[in-house]
Write a structure and sequence with these properties.
With 675 residues, the protein is of the alpha+beta class. The protein has 14 helices and 37 strands. The strands form nine sheets. The chain has a six-stranded mixed β-sheet with strand order 5-4-3-7-9-10, with helices on both faces. It has a five-stranded antiparallel β-sheet with strand order 11-20-14-18-17. Strands 12-13-19-15-16 form a five-stranded antiparallel β-sheet, with no helix packed on it. Helix 3 packs across helix 5 and helix 10 runs parallel beside helix 11. The longest helix has 21 residues.
């Protein structure tokens, strides 16, 4: 039996090499699909405002990763003998792509597109690159003809913007905050881009806005607005009343926004209260991590209420967001911060430091912390934020030449500091912080640019001998494969200079990931092998740009290993398309690897009230290593609009085990019949 970590890594490495040879057809359909979409992107790229973008947007490369994962999932779940390769199935899949795209559900539409590519590839006797290229060009042309140029570009993120979601407390004490939110929205405009000096407004076709109001006990309704003017009018019409206590339905408000927002879109939460519905916290965290949507909390706590913000800090830390403690009048100064989060933000590094981890010098009035980080030549705007629990803390930002950077904003109440540097000098920068005893400070350092160096990734695990399957969970001690794409890397970085790390939530390195040689055909895709740690972790990439400057990027999502695995029994996109007016069951499987038999509880969200079972459900005496099948009955009304997307967030808890999963489904009349 192979048990040592080094042996497990060696065996997985051999499996990767063998699988890369045995799945040549899969490689062809992946590479040709990416190449043909890159050609379509290049041909379709147009003007942004009055100035053109010289490189593909980061969001385009993330769209390619969505498609790649879908192809890989189909390959892992279906054998050629069980796959429906009929012309009828291909036609229904094409229609489902259009249905999802026209209803704005772009990410799930891209999943269907990837599945279609896999089915179409397996339906032909010819496996030549020429045939794959021709069929891929045909489906891309079909999609563009059906959607029109504008929606086609948004669907593949060729020229699409971000959904900005505003989750807003509308209780009586929030009157001044809401006025400041109006001021923030009025001042939203994108910075001049790298080619010209023109500015384009966030109220353009590139951006949409979601408004999710909440109070107590009510929340919603959530509304979508296509431009800034519509959002401002909606803010003017908001009714501000109620409240009277220190806690409101904050988590329900966030959940409403996350069920409708697009992937990679920021969520801004404005409140002066705590949350009285913390039972929804795990669901909110799971949804946010699924969508890579950072949560930014703008808090103006009432002096009469408890200022414990630890739950908000947990959510911000796990989703790569932030908690900003401010005075109500100071909210207006956050327009630049909100704008930069919507333009294209990549994490350079972030972390949390507590007193006791820094250095205390003689004659010093506090404890000193030094954080050094790389700023590369692709960073258009450098954004650094520092938050202190105790307002006597202070910070200093120094450039490579040791020059002092003046903060753009300093809170008079909490001493929170915001630095924003346009066209920063490449090199090693230093953030210095001084804290008092018992203080804790958090920092976040971002690169802002429409064409950031960034990366996307997913995991693979050997669940059957010789077969790697995409995995949504990480179990401590397991050996897993990391598929990592450095987005746009072929134009921005040197392929042989990159190193991939696992880091903890403080930014400290846990381990270096063993990586195989990158593939330029996949925009520098790295195959990495690692053993899952016990603590929560992020992925960090360190490398060198084409001009020779060091860069660092850190993943947005935090991965929390668990000794439990909750997943859909049928997770391939085909089984997540449901016809209006149909009934059936969602099937999930749960397995845990704790040391003893344990009682578990399942809680889940119920968007559209389509699930006909109560939450929570209880499962007593589940044995370790034994699979538990969970059936949730559903009924979809006939009147549900075609293309509607539902996200069901599930959490299983018991003993030391907590496992989460989000089941995304789309309602479409082109779905296969329910069996």
């Amino acid at each position: 039996m192979i048990s040592s970590p080094s042996c497990r890594l060696t065996m997985l490495l051999l499996l990767l090499l063998v699988s890369s040879v045995s799945s040549a057809s899969s490689v062809d359909v992946l590479s040709v699909t990416r190449r043909q979409l890159q050609i379509a992107e290049r041909d379709s790229r147009t003007l942004v405002g009055r100035a053109s973008t010289p490189n593909p947007r980061t969001s385009f490369y993330k769209a390619l990763t969505d498609i790649e994962q879908s192809i890989k999932y189909a390959e892992a779940k279906f054998s050629p003998s069980t796959l429906d390769k009929s012309t009828r199935n291909l036609v229904e899949l094409r229609r489902s792509i259009i249905s999802a795209a026209k209803s704005g559900n772009y990410r799930i539409g891209r999943e269907i597109f990837g599945f279609y590519q896999y089915v179409e590839d397996r339906s032909s006797y010819s496996k030549s690159r020429k045939r794959i290229k021709r069929s891929t060009t045909d489906i891309i042309t079909y999609i563009k003809t059906k959607l029109g140029d504008k929606t086609f570009k948004e669907f593949f993120s060729i020229e699409s913007g971000t959904t900005l979601t505003f989750v807003l407390d509308t209780t009586g004490s929030m009157q001044e905050d809401i006025q400041q939110v109006r001021n923030i929205v009025r001042e939203l405009s994108s910075p001049a881009n790298e080619v010209g000096e023109e500015e384009f407004d966030l109220g353009s076709d590139f951006y949409t806005f979601l408004l999710a109001p909440f109070k107590d006990p009510d929340y919603g309704p959530l509304e979508t607005y296509s431009d800034k003017g519509e959002l401002l009018s909606a803010l003017e019409r908001l009714s501000v009343d109620g409240g009277g206590d220190c806690n409101e339905m904050v988590m329900h408000g966030i959940s409403e926004g996350l069920h409708e927002t697009e992937a990679y879109s920021p969520v801004f939460v404005f409140t002066d209260a705590g949350s009285k519905d913390l039972e929804e916290k795990d669901s909110v965290m799971t949804l946010s991590q699924l969508l890579y949507s950072p949560l930014y909390f703008f808090l103006t706590p009432s002096p009469e209420c408890d200022k414990d913000i630890s739950d908000y800090e947990d959510l911000a830390l796990e989703t790569s967001g932030q908690v900003l403690l401010l005075d109500k009048e100071e909210l207006r100064n956050m327009s630049d911060f909100v704008r930069s989060a919507g333009v294209g933000r990549a994490d350079i590094v972030s972390g949390t430091e507590r007193s006791g981890t820094g250095r205390v010098e003689k004659r010093s009035t506090g404890e000193k912390h030094n954080i050094e980080f790389d700023v590369d030549d692709t960073v258009e705007t450098l954004v650094v934020t520092v938050n202190f629990r105790i307002p006597t803390g202070s910070s200093y930002l120094l450039g490579p030449d040791r020059s002092l950077v003046i903060p753009k904003f300093v809170s008079a109440v909490t001493n929170m500091r915001l630095y924003q540097v346009e066209k920063p000098t490449p090199g090693i920068w230093t953030l210095k912080a001084i804290t008092d005893s018992g203080d804790k400070f958090t920092y976040k350092i971002n690169s802002v640019s429409p064409t950031n160096i960034d990366f996307d990734f997913y995991f693979l695990k050997e669940k059957q001998p010789g077969k790697l399957v995409p995995a949504k969970h990480a179990t401590p001690g397991d050996t897993m494969k990391l598929k990592l794409n450095i987005l746009g890397g072929s134009e921005l970085i040197k392929s042989d200079k990159s190193i991939v790390y696992l880091v903890d939530t403080r930014g400290s390195v846990i381990s270096t990931i063993q990586t195989l040689n990158p593939s330029k055909e996949y925009d520098f895709q790295y195959d990495g092998i690692f053993i899952v740690p016990t603590e929560s972790f992020k992925i960090m990439v360190y490398g060198e740009t084409e001009s020779g400057h060091a860069f660092t990027r850190t993943s947005q999502a935090t991965i929390t290993p668990s000794y439990g695995i909750l997943e859909a029994s049928r997770s391939v996109i085909k089984y997540r398309m449901i016809r209006p007016g149909s009934s059936g069951h969602f099937y999930f499987k749960f397995e845990h690897f704790s040391e003893k038999t344990t009682d578990f509880q399942l809680t889940f969200t119920n968007p559209g009230n389509i699930i006909k079972a109560p939450s929570p459900l209880h499962f007593p005496s589940v044995e370790s290593g034994r699979r538990k099948i969970i059936r949730l009955p559903y009924t979809v009304p006939m009147w549900v609009p075609d293309g509607t997307e539902y996200r069901v967030s599930l959490v299983v808890e018991g003993g030391v085990v907590k496992s989460t999963y989000v089941h995304t489904i789309i309602i479409t009349r082109y779905a296969p019949p329910t069996r």
